Amino acid sequence: MNYFKIQEAIKKSGMDGWLLYSFQGMNPIADRLLQIPVDLVSTRRVFYFIPASGEPVKLVSKIEDCVLDDLPGKRKRYLSYDSLREYLKEITRDATIIAMEYSPDNNIPFVSRVDAGTVELLRSIGKEIVSSACLIQQFEATLTEEQIDSHRVSSRLLRQFISNAIDEICTRIRKTGKVREHHIQHFLTRRYEEHNLITSQLPIVAVNENAVNPHYEPIEGEDSNITEDSLILLDLCAKQNKANAVYAELTRMIYLGFEIPPKYSDAFSIVVEARDAAVAFLKEKFEQNIPVQGWEVDDICRTILNDAGYGNCFIHRTGHSIGEEIHGYGANLDNLETRDERQLIPGTIFSIEPGIYSNTYGVRSEINILVTADGDVEITSGEPQMEIDLISL
Fold this sequence. Notes:
The protein has nine helices and 19 strands. By secondary structure, it is an alpha+beta fold. The strands form five sheets. Strands 4-3-2-1-5-6 form a six-stranded mixed sheet, with helices on both faces. Strands 8, 9, 11, 12 and 19 form a five-stranded mixed sheet that branches. Helix 8 (262-287) packs antiparallel against helix 9. It starts with a helix and ends with a strand. The mean pLDDT is 95.
């Protein structure tokens, strides 16, 4: 941990310090930043205070005092809850405004990891607790060049797998007239294994009305057949099976038949318009060096879908941060489920994925965006899909 850089960011944000708090895995953000091993048995509260200036301080239980051994800073050991409170007063004596993994009104739940009681404890000793959301994005969601390269590799492979899946669907239908969704899902997971990719979410293979559910998962015995005249949504996310690798995620729409029904093609054209408007908005703002907040991009997409009469059919945020987890800790493109007021910053990756979900079908387009170190807006997921792929059997 380079706490000098963190201190620079704390000062720039007008805060007096950042108090990282961990208890039995409740705060994965702190655990990652503090480099607490996932297999370490830790049953007591752990605090690490980084002041705006001066040396950090570790506050650990006397019976588990080795938890933060690898981090710089003085060590304080508490035993009773009274001593914990007194040490918290001592280590934050010169600080009033303190950042923690807290979100006012739980506006950004991805950040809201510190329990209300701990916030109350800090407030009871005179501290003003503010959100560490912007610090988290800077030190957890900003990616190295090596991580960005790993994302590019995974993105290229996912595009290849989608093409492979289309070929497999066509081959099976030509032979037997149908193929089940879970068979194609298994085909895709085998491709992951063959190329040493891992994922926390299995591939989505959704035909016709199953695509109405954005998180549909085909379950053997309950899934549907893919046949001729089917609309298919393929959604893949994966990363390389190595340390610090970053996810890629793609969605592709396919229609098997001789002519795409207008209701599908018309809806998809609106999705494409919304997606491309979001990209154009981002490029314009970054070229002019104008800060962009996540909720603003969501509004761009949502306005187009609303104006086209599909507002009630767009039931999720426009996009999410992508990192070592598929849903990363950076700004999301969201003014629906939350109002994400964090700025989109260089070195981060996020998805843009507007969709329309009617009663009988769903369409979505998903691309990945990198904001480069120079402030350029780059689509890392290949050429965006402009029309539903028409596959004649």
